[in-house]
Amino acid sequence: MKKTFIALLITFLTACSACGPAELETDDSSPQDPYPFATWETCSQVVGDHPCNFTLKDQNDEEVSLYDFYGSAIILDLSAMWCGPCVQAGADVQGTIERFADHDVKYITVLIDNPQGQPPTLSDVQSWAVNLGIETEPVLQGSRDLLSSDPTIGWPLGSWPTFVFITDKMEIYYFQSGYNQQILDALLEDTLAQ
Is the separation of the CB atoms in 109 and 66 below 8 Å? Predict the structure, then answer.
């Protein structure tokens, strides 16, 4: 009887070791859980859904996860270094943060391509941040592996850049293709009101 119980316990623990954050249900009393608020069972990159988490290296060579910013309104900027409108948007990151200084806003840039169309290196994201004056917001090393026309697999990209507005409740509010500072500000105001 004791051997059967131990065998069942080992089987259960082994099976649960494959569970990922999207499958894990938690409650607020679990101090070891880095995301105790993540009680939903599924994620997707669809408006109204909780986005799937990712962890990438930033310009300081530190790992940053999307869900590190739960509780803040988020602008997620999917850009390429070779893209002119992406550079314009990047040059306004600090301006956006300053315009919304009275609100809890995070502006996360995920660089998908470097100037040669390859995944960005640490040097690439560092130069992007320095050259565009991004002092307080993360610039992350992404790749095309993050993209997919199927929003249950990856981020759909309408054009370069594509912006994803995420509420403080970690729900996707809106996608915006292309850069226009006035539209970006208006959509951020709408996101904050959610």
Answer: no
